[in-house]
Amino acid sequence: MLTGFIALYIFMLAAFTGYEIIGRVPSILHTPLMSGSNFVHGIVVVGALFALLNATSVTEQVIGFAGVLLGAGNAAGGYVVTERMLQMFKSSDKK
Amino acid sequence: MNPTLIIDASFLAAAFLFIYGLKRMSSPVTAASGIRVAGLGMLIAVVASFLYVFSVNEAAKPHLMVNAGLGAVALIIGLGWAWTSGKKVEMTAMPQMVALYNGMGGGAAAAIGAVELFRTSAEHALVPLVVTIVGSLIGAISLSGSLIAWAKLDGRVNGVWRFSGLQVMNGTFFFATLALGLYIALVAHGHAPIWMTAAFFILALVFGVLMTMPIGGADMPVVISLYNAFTGLAVGFEGFVLQNPALMIAGMVVGSAGTLLTLLMAKAMNRSVANVIFSNFGASGGEEQG
C-alpha cells in the first residue's frame, strides 16, 4: 500500500522532477511542452478504466464510462496535437 | 506469469518513458522524438491495464463482462474522435484543442473521484477521502474552465464578465464548494446523500466557468497552462486514491512542470499569474494596479 509517507515521497520526487525538466526551457517550446505535458496526464485514462472495471452499480458504470471516454480523448488528442506541433521543429532543423 | 506483476512493471516503464520523453521535449533538437517516447509509454500502460480484468474487486466480478465491454467501447470512441479531430484541426487552432483535451483529462480525474464518492456502500478512510474531494474539485474546475477557454479561443463565447463584486462572488462560490466537499469528507465520511455529492460537482463546474469568464482572450494561453497543471494535480491525487503510482508520478510531474511553465509563460508576457487571474476580478474599470 502506498500510504502515508511513501506517497508523500513519490509526490515530492515527482514534483522536483517536473520542475527540473522544465527549468531553463526556451520560450519557443512553451506551447509544445504545455501540449506534451497535457498528453502525459492522459494516463488518467488508465485510472478511469480501473474505476470502471470495479463498478458495481449503473451510476458507477455511467460515470466510469464517461471517465474512460474523456481520458482516452485526452491521451489521443494530446498525442496527435503535440506530434503535429513538434513536427514543425523537425523540418526546420533539417533545412 | 502473475498479471499484477506485468501491470506494475508496465507502469514503471511508462513512468520512466514519460519523464524521459518530457526531458527530450524540453530541447528543440530532440523535441520531435520526445513525444514518441512518451507515446510508447502510454501505449504500454493502456494495453497492460486491460490485464486488470484478472484482479478486480470481488464485488465487481459479476459485472466484469459488461464493465470491460463498456471500457473498450469508451476507449475506442474517445480515441477515434480525438485522433481524427486532432489531425483535422488547423495549425492556428492548436491552443484551443490543447484546452479541450486538457479539459477532458480534468473531467476524467473528476469522474474517478465521482465513482469513489458515489460508491456509498464502501468504507472510506479519512485521508483518501479528503484527497478524493480535493482531486475532484480541481479536476472539475479544470474541465469547465478549459471548456470556456476553448470556447473563447474558438470564437464561440465572446466578451468578458466584468462587474463590481465579481471577485467577492467568485470567492464566496469557491469557499461554499470547498465547504460542501469537506462536509462530505469530514462529517458525512463519504456517506453523504447522492444529491449532496452531485451538488458538490455541479458547484465545482460552475466555479470553473465563473473563474474563466472574466479573463480575456490574450491571456488564455497562460490560463490553459494553469488548467493543464490543475489537471496534472487532479490526476496525481486520484492516482493516490486508486493506489496507482503511474498516475501519481505522471500527474505530479505535470502538476509541477505545468505550474513552472505557467509562471514562465506569464513572465514572457510581462505579466504575473496573479495579475492574469485576478486583475479583472471585480475591477469596475481602470488599471489601478498597473
From TrEMBL, chain A:
Keywords: Cell inner membrane, Cell membrane, Membrane, NAD, NADP, Translocase, Transmembrane, Transmembrane helix. GO terms for biological process: NADPH regeneration. It comes from the Bacteria. GO terms for cellular component: plasma membrane. It is a multi-pass membrane protein. This is proton-translocating NAD(P)(+) transhydrogenase. The transhydrogenation between NADH and NADP is coupled to respiration and ATP hydrolysis and functions as a proton pump across the membrane. Residues 8-90 form the NAD(P) transhydrogenase alpha subunit C-terminal domain. It is found in: Cell inner membrane. The chain crosses the membrane at residues 6-26, 38-56, 62-81. One of its GO terms (molecular function) is NADP binding. Its EC number is 7.1.1.1. InterPro entries: NADP_transhyd_a_C. It catalyses: NAD(+) + NADPH + H(+)(in) = NADH + NADP(+) + H(+)(out).
